[in-house]
Structure formats: structure tokens, C-alpha cells
Amino acid sequence: MKRSKAEITREYGPFPGTDGVAGVSFDGARIWVATGNKLNAVDPESGETLRSIEVAAHAGTAFDGKHLFQIAEAVIHKIDPETGAILATIPAPAKGGDSGMAWAEGSLWVGEHRGAKIHQIDPETGAILRTIASDRFVTGVTWVEGELWHGTWQEDKSDLRRIDPSTGEVLECLEMPDGKGVSGLESDGGERFFCGGGTSQTVRAIRRPRDSG
Asked: pTM above the 0.90 mark?
């Protein structure tokens, strides 16, 4: 397993009036930040909050190319990002113990926090298609260029891990600095990860290693 220090390249926020960052996604132009009772669209270049959607946003966020998906307690809402309308609702696999969420291969991938699992689920029904086990609390999930990464945060230690999606084996680990945890994870499709910073009310950009393969 490759192990190195995570390189923080930028910090967004803090986002005032919140208890912290619960989830992060990226739609190709805007970072979507879940802060408990709203989803905030943030410009990745200026760092400005462009608009907000008033919706329960307690954990992970995902984007399928057209719609946002947002964990709210024990369910997942499918949301129109332009109007904020909730279009559908499915059960979340951990029934309220869910953490991060990502879209890939026509499925949602949902982290189960203290259960230390990642579930691939049907986005129409919420049915669990398969489950990958971890040995650490799962706090974020993302796919980029065929790589499955997840965040961990446990006992004041946090890291980003690239794992084998077929076995769960950890292939690479980026260790976060002391005192900086990951509460939500998303790739920009290139050289950056966006990581929720928990109660720091921030989102941190982390450089993605380009020689991961």
C-alpha cells in the first residue's frame, strides 16, 4: 500500500450559520456543500456561495449529471438543482447511520459511518446491490477515473483511501494533518478532491496523486 501525506491546496469557508459540513459534491461547475438545513452552491474559483437550497442535508451529497441526491436522516432525496424541488425519495441503506455518497456506473455509492461499509445501491429503489467492508469509519465516498476513494475519520485520525472496489483492499492512503478530518468527499474529475471539514465549517481541496494507478 502506498502511503503519503495529504496536500491541502485550498480551503473554502467557513460557512457561517451552520454546525459544520456534512457532505460535498461537484456538478462540473459548482461545489455543493451540505450544511444541515441547506445545500450551498459554491464557486470553486472565487469561493463565493452562489445560492442555497433550503433542504434537509444531514450527510452525503451526490450528482448524477442532472440531479442532486441528498441524505436526510434515514432517506435519500432526489433534487432538481435549479428549482430545489424534491423529485423522489428512497430509503438510505444504513437507516440514518449513513455518511458520504457518490454517483458512478448508474448507481449510488453510500458510506455507512460506524458500520464501516460502502453500499452500492439502486438509485430508483434504494435496494442494496453489494457492500464493501472497511476497517475504519467511512466518512466520504467518491469515484474518479475508475478509482474508488473513501474518507475515514476515527479516534482523531483521518485519511483518504483508494481501495480495490472488488475486494476492499486499501491500495493507497493520504494521511490528513492532525486535527483536520474528512466529513464528505468528492472529486472534481481531475486533480482535486473536495473534502468536508466537519465542525470547522470548511471544505478543503486536496491534491489527487496522478500516479495512483
From this structure: yes
- Classify 115 in phi/psi space as left (phi over 0), alpha (psi -120 to 50) or beta: alpha
**CA-based nearest residue to 167, from 211, 137, 131, 142:** 131
Cell triple for residue 83?
428549482
Decide: residue 65, CB within 10 A, 0-12 exposed, 13-18 middle, 19+ buried. Answer: exposed
Distance CA 167, CA 94 (A): 21
| Rounded-to-integer distance, Cα 130 and Cα 111, Å | 12
Compute the CA torsion angle 155, 166, 76, 67 (nearest 10 deg): 120
Kindly report, residue by residue over 153-162, the tens digit of the pLDDT: 999 999 999 9
First vs last Cα of the chain: how many Å apart?
12
